[in-house]
Amino acid sequence: MRSDFETPSGVGTGAGQSLLRAVSARRGGICVAGALAATGLLFAWQASLIDFGDFALPGPGFFPLALAVSVVLLSVVIGVEDWLGAGHQGTIELGHRDVLIVLAALLAVPPLFEPLGAYLTLGLFGATLLVLIARCSLLVAGLSAIIAMVACWYFFQVALGLQLPIGAILDGLGM
Amino acid sequence: MTGFDQLLGGFAIALSWKGLLYCFIGCLWGTIVGVLPGLGPLAGMTLLLPLTFGLDPAIGIIMLTGIFYGAMYGGSTTSILVRIPGEAASVVTCIDGYEMARQGRAGPALMIAAVGSFIGGTVSIVGLMLIAPPLAKVMIAIGPSVEVVLILLALSVISVVSAGSRVKTVLMVALGLLLGSIGLDNLTGVARFTFGYTSMAGGLSFTSLAIGLFGISEILINLEKTETIKAIRPKFKDLMPRSKDLRDSAPAIGRASAIGFIFGVIPGVSHVVSTFVSYAVEKRFSAHPEEFGHGAIAGVAGPETANNAVTGTAMIPLLALGIPSIPATAILLSALTIHGVQPGPLLLTDHPEVFWSLVASMYIGNVILLILNLPLVGIFVNLLRIPYAWLVPIILIISIIGVYSVNFSVADIWIMAISGGVGYILRKFGYEMAGLLLAFVLGDRLEASFRLALTMSGGSYATFADHASIIVLASVLGLLFAVQALAWLFGYRKSVADETEGA
Q1: What is the extent of the structural domain holding B304?
Q2: pLDDT for residue B274
Q3: Is the pLDDT of residue A101 over 90?
Q4: CB-closest option in B232, B425, B458 to A3
Q5: B99: which of B148, B258, B297, B442 is 20 to 30 A away, CA to CA?
Q6: B396 and A103: CB-CB below 8 Å?
Q7: What are the extents of the domains in chain A?
């Protein structure tokens, strides 16, 4: 037996690369519970607009309203627990640079997916992550993205027959 | 046609070139996702779910199930060699497995883990084969009221066995049921929570939600980790255990097979709980409990056998009742439904080929995994050399294409991205996603059965306490308290909390 190699399991290893912010677990917990309660209230309001029926013969609004009210009540219980300090102690780290980059890149994909086409959008997505997270050079990231997209096209479109949106640019090039 | 004939028919499908190929792909991918930290069976199954759409239902399910138990096998490799559990069910294996590896005994630990997994897996398949068909026959006779009781109990047990806050788990269950009610009402066709978007009429996509809540949130959490992996790579010739190892492991494997088999039917996190209980049982039964934590082979054999023994029995509630007990079987439920196959009591009469080919493929898959995991362990360990930053774009691109291809809708990519972010925040604050996902899957049936039962009984709630329901309720409640007592007795909740703090 021998110890053969060492590899970083995560990627946020570089000093100064992290934008981690320690959030009080208690305050954060209250905020999360508040957000869940607000979600429950929104659903409860919408459910109240649907036919409730009655307790003997419930309508389509009965089940969602009961659940939405439960979500609100349970969120309040958790919020109060956190407020009294019975829930989380200490801090929770949020806002890691790479997490924010991945989330932003993910949210940029849907609006571009059909206009730009799947392959171009995902190629850009992959290259961006390779540059910003894996810290590759632009050339390596670009080449890797092209190879990955050709592989995706072959696997999904040719081998599996999956038709992904081609987009206006590639369509204009007659592909 | 007897059960034996049907099993032979199942073997004919599973041993066809397609059956073998997709079983192999499933086992291989399962092992890979089990080995790679941050990718568990659930993410592995959801990522390949879209690939099954063009396949025959039986073949598609064979592949997905292969991923499920392949991940259970693969998870032990990183636990033993790197001290990083590839998935949650391998956490306990880290304790003695890594100690053995440090003492130069990684080979025997891997060998015993693989053999135990094989035996545990095989025992549970026999159980699945024997229990599911008669249980399905009983279930055909029951009405919607009992179904309501069963689903409610399944969801209650999730909160009881959860390691974190029970209130938070119940909240996640309620939220899952609420999200499941989005779309057209099954009974009246009334649109609920669609906010005017026609793309929401069919409800939220399960695949998008599952990949977002489990896969994406897991990736985001892993991005924050900074520790360095130190892998110990064993040589093939060092794999053979000593005779003392075999003597110590054999009873542990036997007991853990029974533990995993029993815990497999319990909803929630049964594969995780079974490993903790098995470890505690082995420590109690051992003549040298002081060796536990310092490289006791029974501490590897027990948990690894137990988590694989769960895989077969976890299929029983899904295939016989149509109720998934863990998130991985919820993915199978979704896959079967997409293929037009409704899991439940009628599966064995309407689609017996799916059930029996699945059973047959699990026998074959266990052999494939034994062959894959031992000689190729060095190759799998080398996967850990790939920097995580390179894996992230690859996994995300496959996920995006996967969720889009289910309905060819960009809305599904939105749902995946948003639920990934929400899942990340919720998990950071101690909310568990398993309950939400199971409730989301079961919500439709719970509501439909609830309203149907009330309609049939003329609005009387007494229908939920009829004779059959009470029997079911009493049995499951007894089981629930037994689990709770066991979990308390063996300090599962404390162990998980300690592990979480230590992670």
Answers
A1: 3-383+390-502
A2: 81
A3: yes
A4: B232
A5: B258
A6: no
A7: 21-94, 97-172
